[in-house]
UniProtKB/TrEMBL annotation:
Keywords: Membrane, Transmembrane, Transmembrane helix. It holds the Pfam family Fung_rhodopsin. Its main location: membrane. InterPro entries: Rhodopsin_dom_fungi, SAT4-like. This is Rhodopsin domain-containing protein. The chain crosses the membrane at residues 12-30, 51-71, 102-120, 132-150, 199-223, 235-258. The keyword Hydrolase does not apply. It is a multi-pass membrane protein. It comes from the Eukaryota. It comes from Phialocephala subalpina. Residues 306-334 are annotated as: Disordered. GO terms for cellular component: membrane. It is found in: Membrane.
């Protein structure tokens, strides 16, 4: 029986596409729930969702191309077990290979752009974060365009990248080459290409670089926010879930370095080449996770906790702590202890206190209209108080 890993390769491609489809559907469900609950579908959200939808369409196409490439080029089989392929089958297989190459980088770029717009929506109030996000957005766009065209025109003439079996054979016949396709020890080719191996490795390295930027920026957004440690860790984990994609990107770089190594004499055997499809699908999956807040709150409300609701309870000053939402812009009196301040020994004064607003459409961080931090005018009133030692009991001096 012939040893092959092709079934495993096809299963990997199909499973990851199925997972991506599920998360894409969950994202749509979460959007429907959010809109029913009054979440505003603003331009940032619209563009973020649109880019993810386009990326999903491309990744479905790429997965189909990967399956066809696997079948036509006998991936998963040992080289010695692969029958001699016709020129037509070789050309067809390389066309699907080119399709994979051209789709891979745009998918990742679209997902990163979608995530950046999402982060701009929830964390755009921090100037340093906003500048970093827009800089990364432009860098990601320029890099995607550059890699796409370099990939598309990596060979001269253009069609040599996939039609090289036929073009080489035609050129060798015209030059009177021997059975090895050589004339005076020189292999005759029908076109020329850039150093494809170095190009693939360098572009993969640049993709890892932009991945790291997108993963690191959420840390800047939540670094100095005043929120419970548990919620800060949860928010950071949700916003930085793309680190999984970065890990796969690094793994892809290592795998492809070996795949193209001169020491690898059996390139078709194995499932390592499916890492590109895995990475593209995983990118969309993780890109959908931060937008699932409304859905998670419906299914398991305790995971993200309540947003903006604080229990009412009496304070030492005699006033009742009200919810932050109930008093914003309504002139309600709130004890300063609502914000964790000590009031003992203070005299009555009017103060402006900076507080954090934690209710957001995504239930992670506040949307841009709330500016993450906002000033709330509060009236702090204190009654004169004296210590027990200083009080006088009626008719008797205090001892």
């Amino acid at each position: 029986m012939v040893d092959t890993q092709q079934p495993e390769a096809l299963a990997i491609i199909g499973v990851f596409l199925s997972i991506t489809t599920i998360f894409a559907a969950l994202r749509i469900w979460a959007r429907v729930i959010g809109c029913k609950n009054g979440i505003r579908w603003d331009s940032y959200m619209m563009w973020s969702d649109g880019l993810i939808a386009l990326a999903y369409a491309l990744v479905a196409t790429e997965s189909y191309a990967s399956i066809k490439y696997t079948l036509y080029t006998w991936q998963g089989y040992h080289l010695v077990d692969i029958p001699k392929l016709s020129i037509a089958d070789q050309v067809r297989g390389q066309k699907y290979n080119l399709a994979n190459q051209l789709l891979y980088n745009p998918i990742l770029a679209l997902v990163k752009a979608s995530v950046i717009l999402f982060l701009l929506r929830i964390g755009g109030a921090k100037p340093i974060a906003k500048k970093a996000l827009w800089t990364t957005f432009v860098l990601n766009l320029l890099l995607a365009i550059a890699i796409f065209f370099a990939d598309a025109f990596q060979c001269t003439p253009f069609n040599y990248v996939y039609d090289y079996p036929m073009m080489d054979l035609t050129a060798q016949k015209a030059a009177g080459a021997d059975s090895k396709g050589q004339v005076n020890g020189v292999t005759i080719k029908g076109g020329k290409c850039i150093d494809q191996i170095n190009f693939f490795l360098i572009s993969a390295g640049l993709a890892v670089g932009t991945d790291l930027l997108v993963v690191a920026i959420p840390t800047v957004i939540i670094w100095d926010l005043k929120m419970a440690r548990r919620k800060k860790i949860a928010a950071g984990a949700i916003l930085s879930v793309g680190v999984l994609v970065t890990a796969v990107s690094i793994a892809r770089l290592i795998i492809y370095h070996w795949r193209f190594s001169p020491k690898n004499h059996d390139r078709t055997y194995g499932v390592g080449y499916t890492v590109s499809s895995m990475e593209a699908n995983l990118a969309i999956t993780t890109g959908c996770v931060p937008s699932l807040g409304p859905l998670v709150r419906r299914i398991a409300p305790r995971i993200l906790g309540s947003t903006g609701n604080y229990p009412s309870r009496p304070t030492p000053s005699g006033y009742v702590q009200q919810t932050g939402e109930g008093n914003e812009g309504k002139g309600g009196q709130v004890s300063l202890e609502t914000f964790g301040a000590r009031t003992t020994g203070w005299k009555g004064s009017r103060s402006q206190v900076e507080v954090e607003a934690w209710s957001s459409d995504e239930n992670i961080l506040p949307p841009e209209p709330e500016q993450i931090r906002k000033a709330v005018n509060v009236d702090v009133t204190f009654s004169d108080a004296s210590s027990i030692e200083g009080r006088k009991v009626q008719g008797k001096p205090a001892f």
